[in-house]
Amino acid sequence: MKKLILLFAILLPCLVFAQEIKEEQKSKSFEYMCFSFSASRLHLSINEGYLTNEDRKTIIFTNPALMMSYFGKDGWELVTVDSSVYFFKKDVTGWPDEKIKEFLGKYNITNKLRY
Predict the structure, then answer these.
(1) pLDDT by residue (tens digit) across 32-51?
(2) What does the alpha-carbon distance between residue 61 and residue 37 come to, in Å, rounded to a whole number?
(3) Is residue 44, in this structure, part of any structural domain at all?
(4) pTM of the model
(5) For the chain, how many structural domains are there in total?
(6) Hey, what's the torsion of the CAs at 107, 111, 113, 114, to 10 degrees?
(7) Closest to 63 in 3D by CA, of 84, 41, 44
């Protein structure tokens, strides 16, 4: 019995040390959006509606390549396409909430379709 207690006392620090996290790794975080090509509607986590330019006129893309190029220049990656709805993601690992809101806020969105 004494040998068992001694063995337990010797191995206990090894077991406790094995549970220590040496290098904490941050998990990846992503921001997602979807764009309906046929309806020209953009869905972000902070807002949804029609994407507009500086003059508040709705941006209508004539083909999907132009739309993907427009969002691709901002770092959005195409995830999948379902019918005419395109799903994108952007890696925002390490970004504070304020920076994410500022990034998404640069997309002018309105609820009214204007040509």
Answers:
(1) 999 998 888 999 988 899 99
(2) 8
(3) yes
(4) 0.72
(5) 1
(6) -70
(7) 84
